[in-house]
Amino acid sequence: MSLLKSLTSNTVQKRLFASLRDKAPKITPQELYEPVFEDSKVYPEYSTINVRLQSYNFVPLEKYEGYVHRIAKKFKFEIVDCYAVAAQTQNIQTYKPNSTVVDSEIELSKYDRTVRISQVPSIRLPLFISLIQTHAPIGIEITVKEHEKVDEDNRYIPDLMLKEKQLELKALDDPAIRRNLGWE
Questions:
Q1: Per-residue pLDDT tens for 44-55?
Q2: What are the residues whose beta carbons fall under 8 Å from the beta carbon of 49, sequence distance 6 or more?
Q3: CA-CA distance, 108 to 58, in Å (whole number)?
Q4: Quick check: helix, strand or coil at residue 3?
Q5: Domains of the chain: residue spans and CATH
Q6: Helices 58-74 and 125-134: crossing angle, nearest 10°?
Q7: Coil, helix or strand for 152?
C-alpha cells in the first residue's frame, strides 16, 4: 500500500512541472517560416481623402471605380462613401472647312465618380495613388485630395424650384411688399 501511495504522490509531483512543450512559445502558421516584426512607429493619418474619377466613357469608369474601392479595402482604409455626381454635358460644334457653317453638333457627357476614404496613413497614401494611377484605363482623370465642404455641396443637384420659393418667402419679409399685399 505504501508503494501505491508513493507512486501516486510521484505522479502528482511530475504533473506540477511544466513540460518543454508548455514552456515553448506558441507559434502561429504565419510565423512558422517568417517572423512577425512589430512596427512600433506611429505615422500620421489623413482624416478624409476624396479620390475623384472623371471620364467621358461611362462603362470603364464604373468598372474602375469598383477597382479603386477594392484596392482601398485591401489597403485597409475605411471607405466612408462611394457616389456618383451628375454628369456635366457640353455641346460641341464642328464647322465645315474654311467657313462658319455648322457641320455637326455633338453632345458630350463627362461622368464623375468619387470614392471617399478615411483613416489613411500618410506612409501608405503614395503607394495607393501610384497603384491606381498605374492601372488607370485610358481616358480616366484621377484627382486625389483632402475632403472639403465644397465637395459635399457639388454632390447634390440643386432644386431650382425650391430655391425660387425660398426667395419668395424671404421677399415677404420686406415691409414694402407686405404693405402692397395689405398685410400691414
A1: 888 899 999 999
A2: 116, 117, 118, 120, 125, 144, 145, 146, 147
A3: 11
A4: helix
A5: 45-86+113-157 (3.30.70.600)
A6: 150
A7: helix
